[in-house]
Sequence to fold (375 residues):
Amino acid sequence: MLKKSIFFVLLVLLTACNNPGKFKVSGNITDAEGKVLYFEKTGLLKDSLIDSVKLSKEGTFKFRTAVPVYPELYRLRLDNQQLVLGIDSTESIEIQGSASDLISSAITGSVQTADIQALRKSVIELQKQFDAYPAVKDVEKSKSLADSLQMRVEEHKKFAQGIILKNPGSMAAYFALYQQISGNYIFSPYVKAERPYYQAVATSFHSIMPEYERSKSLYNLVLSAIREDRMARRQNIPGSIGEIQKTGFLEIELKDKNGYPQKLSSLIGKPILLDFSAYGTETSIDYTFALREIFTKYSPNGLQIYQVSVDQSKMLWQRSVSNIPWTCVHDETGIAAKSYNVQAIPTMYLISKEGNIIGRYRSIKSMEADLGKVL
Fold:
């Protein structure tokens, strides 16, 4: 009887260990004695802790949890480092790494997790280069770093596009769409050239698992971008320029560095300096200092600045305008500049409190001479 009981217990344990409804994450993390390793699920709306372990000198760990109903993202977190795991079936993932450089861990058992790791490593390097972009008055160094960063961004996009097209239904493809640098997305469904990659992943997720919240969210995002594009084409205006106002200026509605739409008309009632310029030019630092002096001098009299950037690099523009005190938006398509017949930058317009255009200028000095007409 005792032998039968032992056999039954062993059979139950063996069955549990090979339960197809579970997936396992195990391995070793060296140089982490006494540190706590967390195993977490990264949900669409919130993260949740599944398990944790205090690592021994050997650094051995093993986590096991139920396979999710839909593909999901999980992570191993140690101090301020993390490894992101893409799970869409029963998996046994092996991790061999070090606490000093967790992102460089060797991963076996999950191709999409390895793809996610490669994507993250690429973005980490981009972030380092982005953070090195100087906020100093060094034109040559600034331009060189800007060109180098833009080239690296394009290289990363091509790499990410390859992962997306390889398997658009994978969590690695999904993850590639939502990577950020300093809180700004690298890809956007509102950029025509990048939308097909969103469409590929959205279509794949929607056709296989239409009830999944990630599928719905992504699908709705793509539909929103398509609707906005169609509406703009019906109006023959690319999404951001409105009709001529009764007072005579052409409405502009573009997004600021935080992604919020800002209307030029929202400033009517106060004198406005409408400025078209770019932060990626050799003279931009001097020009920004001069514009700041104008704002400091005349904003107590009500002057508002609505600056339209025509920079090609959205990320470098966002970095450059992080501390400016006036409204600055990004003219990604160039339609606002075309609508105002901007042939060269900088180009400025003075708009009265009533919304009437007083004049057009190519220099701050000539514009300042007319400021008395609107203050």
The chain has three domains: 17-109, 126-234, 243-373.
